[in-house]
Amino acid sequence: MKYKLLYTSKAKKDLSNFNSKIASKILDKIDFYFEEGNPIKYSKKLSNFKNGTYRFKIGDYRAIFDVDNKGNITILIILRIKHRKEVFDSNFICGKGGTMLECIY
Questions:
Q1: Per-domain residue ranges for the chain?
Q2: Could you tell me where the beta strands, DSSP code E, fall in the chain?
């Protein structure tokens, strides 16, 4: 199965807020998961889907993502990347009053 990786603008902003060493560590780990061929096996399915469907654990940080199956290509959409203490805050995905569509686009 082929996988494609996309980052939302919020995820990109999250990465820019980290120092370069932490951001590099996070990106390297996500790239490693993809190079292994099945990144889903490194994830955990979340029980509260309002924040996303899956998460990658990367040290003290979490990358929350959704999966979109398009025929024979599976697209992983990285929604947000936050410290583990902030990741499941109710306002973290799109901010107060934001919708998932506002977050993605």
A1: 2-104
A2: 2-7, 43-45, 54-58, 61-70, 73-83
- pTM for this one? 0.76
Burial 37-75 (b: 16+ CB within 10 A, else e): eebbebbeebeeeebbbbbbebeebbbbbbbeeeeeebe
In the Cβ-directed half-sphere of 49, how many Cα atoms lie within 13 Å?
A: 3
CA distance 95 to 89: 10
* C-alpha distances in Å from residue 20, one per residue of 12, 14, 25, 27: 13, 12, 9, 10
Residue-wise pLDDT for 75-89, tens only, equals 888 888 888 878 766
Count of Cβ atoms closer than 10 Å to residue 10 Cβ: 21
Half-sphere exposure (CA, 13 Å, Cβ side) for 4?
A: 9
Q: Which CATH class is domain 2-104?
A: alpha beta
**Mean per-residue pLDDT, 57-81:** 83
